[in-house]
Amino acid sequence: MDKVFSTPQEAVKEVRDGSVVIVGGFGGSGVPYNLIEALLDQGAKDLTVISNDPMEWFPFAEKGRARKVISGFTNHPVRAEITEQVEKLVRAGKLEAEAVPHGTLEERIRAGGMGIAAFYTLTGVGTPVEVGKEKRAFNGKEYLLETALKGDVALVKGFQADRFGNVVCRLAAGNRNIVMACAATLTIAEVEEIAPPGSIDPNRVDIPGIFVNRVVQASKVVRWLVRGEM
Amino acid sequence: MNQGLSRELIAVRIAREFKDGMYVNLGFGMPTLVCSFLPPDQDIFLHSEQGILGYGGILMDESKWDVDLINASGQPVSLVPGACFCDLATSFGMIRGGHLDVSVLGAYQVSEKGDLANWKRGDQVVGGIGGAMDLAIGAKRVIVAMEHATNKGEPKIVHQCSFPLTAGGVVKTIVTNLAFIDVTPSGLVLREVASGVTAEEVQALTEPKLIVSNELREMEL
Questions:
Q1: Which residues of B touch A172 (CB under 8 A)?
Q2: Which of B41, B122, B152, B167 has its CA 20 to 30 A from that of A136?
Q3: Per residue in B76-99, pLDDT tens?
Q4: What ipTM did this prediction achieve?
Q5: CB A103 to CB B129 under 8 A?
């Protein structure tokens, strides 16, 4: 078994038009920049991009590759000019933007990966998020039915991986990557280091190899970025 | 009239609500400032959505910045002794599952019933829900930190929110540049005013009728 691919370009080669792409990362931390760049270069279009942050989905929207985004932030929390561009795309019917409460987004993806079709949550009751969804009372409280999400492809970022696909994350950069990796047909992990087989402590594996189909060493590693720069 | 407290002093007042052993989440914007004013002799664990329990202050020293260690507002942070990490589904389980003692959130509007609107203004096509809806329904106590009125002097504490809701009936306390107000079943109780501000001045910038506490006092900072 050897899941290591030589370049990010090789690893994303077969991603097709119309795919649902789940992207890991949070606020600039744990973002698979190399895979995002490779997929933009590869040219797949009509994508549905699922991520929490415009840092991951906006490049696809800006270049006309995304038909739909599903995200906790369908605006840009800091840069008003990006929010304006997104609003323009949405008004012109070029982009569909589904705003999802962040916890619900993660749980829908986790459910997708864990074989759970749907779940009830308090989050979003009495808000625009509940529109069109089933509501049901448990113990005197109303909950919303939220359905699972799955991807054709998941792009995630780790610190180390071995050739079996076991991924170790660094500090808080595991964030969404650990969840996203479970929920796609093809999960690709970019990492800073490829570790020799047997060198990773089994207790330290953040993403078990069964969830990871491909591993690639990142050619560029971002150590810090100003939030405004994507 | 007196403009009341600065953003930093609002944060100072909110930090005084925290007690030893509490788990607290600080939302985007003004709430984040609270992390600089935590009581030093107490163990208060700051939770951040991306899976940090126990971050310290925001790091000013650029040489220590690490993109793998930021808070939910994207700021580089330190860790306190006893900190731990988890994945994001677990992190939101902590929020949604009722494990957080306090969530401090910013707001566009709060209603007299404690409804919260803080993710999208009425005229916007897209918006940023982020973790706000989960935090609003999940934390044991939601404290709102905000300016008392808009730049145009319109009340942000209103009978009914005109902006899309984040959650209904969740806000327990509102701390602004002018006042400390508790949301109670009988209405909004004005407990404290900022130095140099009167209850009448607070009322003039608040849409619902305030119940002035018998023990109304000046905010201690």
A1: 48, 50-52, 68-70, 85
A2: B122
A3: 999 999 999 999 999 999 999 999
A4: 0.94
A5: no
